[in-house]
Design a protein that fits this description.
single chain, alpha+beta, 2 domains, six-stranded mixed barrel, two-stranded antiparallel sheet, 50% helix, elongated
């Protein structure tokens, strides 16, 4: 047993010594390995981008909504944009005994209007730009449902005037939109009166304005699209839903606000993964093939060197180990080339995507966390390992006499 352990240690030391020799000579083969390095760099960049985009959107939507707030829409509507409700329904909902009341003994209810608005503005150079953004018509009650709401510039809009406040995400994405800027919404001119934050939630991707002005400008009469209700603790949601389903005056769909946005996050991230990961997988196959070709070419050009190593006593395991270490080094260099530029340039960068439900832009920040970087590194190293296994086996089995006759 003792001899077996010593023998294993000796073989491992031998493998490490040969791998060290190969790594020291690697710079001379770096140009020949550049195709593999660049291929893996591209794969790493795509994988990390997809992961960072997904995590950024998920975190944005996770920060949105409250656990004790119920969002109510028309039955069958999967988004606020598809819903239509009326004031009489709001009154019925507000009078339910499970709805909290404020200090003035008024029901804590927020009726809101949601519009996919085409916004046009003129930048400092005089060029006109058009963006599709979410315009939310709100009342003073809405602020009570946004505990993280905070004005960071300007002031809240005034009721009865064409004024809007914009989310910080929009202000970051479109820097020309500042307090005092005039924009066009629905064919009318609106003044940006302030900029707000809301804990980096999806609401920061919206424009907020007086609900009456939005209804008037978009010719919606007195209709609205969603109602938010603050519920008492331990409310039985299923029982409340059944009560409203049995009411012939109502035709509603209810859901906790937190769950509503969690479902949206799931749908969006599923779409990104369906598109992004197949592309990354195809690129990964290409990178693995490039790594295979590189390592096979390396073995062909170094056949006499490998034969010499075998002739002077290096084991087949040492040869295989050194080839795999070189393949992993190529993968590591490629991964770092793909990851580092993204980390230094795009970490925290504000991006936008089209929300399939609301047909408007949703802004979010790229989240390049250490967990995602480690996942990308492991994926890249796996590509290098798979690309090096077959060449390593070939080098291990290469007969000394055949190798010495080559060239």
């Amino acid at each position: 047993m003792y001899q077996l352990i010593n023998h294993s240690r000796a073989k491992f030391k031998q493998a490490v010594a040969l791998a060290t020799i190969n790594l020291k000579s690697f710079p001379h083969r770096a140009i020949a390995s550049s195709v593999s390095i660049l291929s893996i760099a591209c794969v790493a960049a795509v994988i990390l981008s997809v992961l960072a985009m997904t995590q950024g959107m998920v975190k944005t939507l996770e920060r949105t909504g409250l656990d004790d707030t119920l969002i109510v829409m028309r039955a069958g509507a999967v988004s606020e944009l598809q819903s239509v409700m009326f004031p009489v329904e709001v009154n019925i909902l507000a009078n339910n005994k499970q709805v909290l009341k404020n200090s003035d003994n008024q029901a804590m209810v927020s009726a809101e209007m949601f519009v996919n608005a085409e916004m046009s503005h003129i930048d400092k150079s005089g060029e006109k730009h058009i963006e599709k953004l979410a315009l939310r018509g709100i009342s003073k009650n809405t602020y009570g449902f946004r505990p993280n709401f905070n004005m960071i510039a300007g002031e809240k809009f005034k009721t009865g005037l064409r004024q809007v406040i914009i989310g910080q995400a929009i202000a970051r994405k479109i820097p020309t939109l500042t307090v005092g800027t005039t924009i066009t919404l629905g064919g009318a001119r609106w003044l940006i009166s302030g900029i707000f934050t809301d804990n980096n939630s999806v609401f920061e991707s919206e424009l907020w304005a007086d609900i009456g002005m939005v209804q008037s400008d978009y010719q919606r009469g007195n209709t609205l699209q969603s109602v938010r209700l603050a519920l008492k603790a331990n409310t039985d949601i299923a029982q409340l839903n059944q009560e409203w389903q049995d009411d012939p005056r109502l035709n509603l769909r209810i859901m906790l606000e937190k769950q509503f946005f969690a479902n949206q996050a799931e749908n969006l991230t599923r779409l990104i993964r369906w598109i992004g990961f197949p592309v990354a997988f195809i690129m990964a196959l290409g990178a693995m093939i490039a790594a295979l070709n590189t390592m096979y070419a390396t073995i062909a050009s170094r056949s006499k060197e490998i034969a010499t190593h075998k002739a002077i006593g290096f084991s087949a395991f040492s040869i295989c180990f050194s080839i795999l270490i070189e393949a992993l080094l190529i993968a590591l260099v490629g991964a770092l080339l793909g990851i580092l530029p993204l980390y230094f340039i795009f970490d925290g960068w504000t991006a936008s995507t089209q929300d399939a439900n609301n047909l408007s832009q949703m802004m979010f920040n790229f989240e390049l966390s250490m967990d995602l970087i480690i996942q990308t590194l492991l994926f890249s190293i796996t590509i290098g390992l798979l690309g090096g296994i077959l060449p390593a086996i070939k080098a291990m089995r290469l007969p000394v006499t055949v190798a010495l006759r080559d060239n």
